[in-house]
What we know:
This protein is of the alpha/beta class.
Amino acid sequence: LRTTVGFELRVTRGLGVLRHADIVIVPSWRDPQEAPPEALIQAMRAAHRRGARLVGLCLGAYPVAATGLLDGRSATTHWSVADDFAQRFPSVQVDRDVLYVDEGDVITSAGTAAGMDCCLHLLRQLRGAEAANRICGS
Length: 138
């Protein structure tokens, strides 16, 4: 898969890998108007039911919201699509003024740089502040 920013992702496994994942990260989504495939939605719902944490970085908040797991919760996404996101998912409270929103079992982030902050937050939760600080060079 060629990304819109010039690098390629090589997919070597299918959605079945989500059956064993503790964390499912949707790094972005190529087009907010493109609905995620039903198989992806079902795989994310099943992973969540099993206890996996879902993370939607930047436009990756769209597929996460499509699962319905953000209904009644707060979320964020890239500022340029926040209004569209709010219209498409009216049951989600969009917070435009934060880098990420951690609802415990579902996390969303704003743009690319905010996605890095979100991942450092996640790393801090999983491995402690020292590990997160080593990653960012502090």
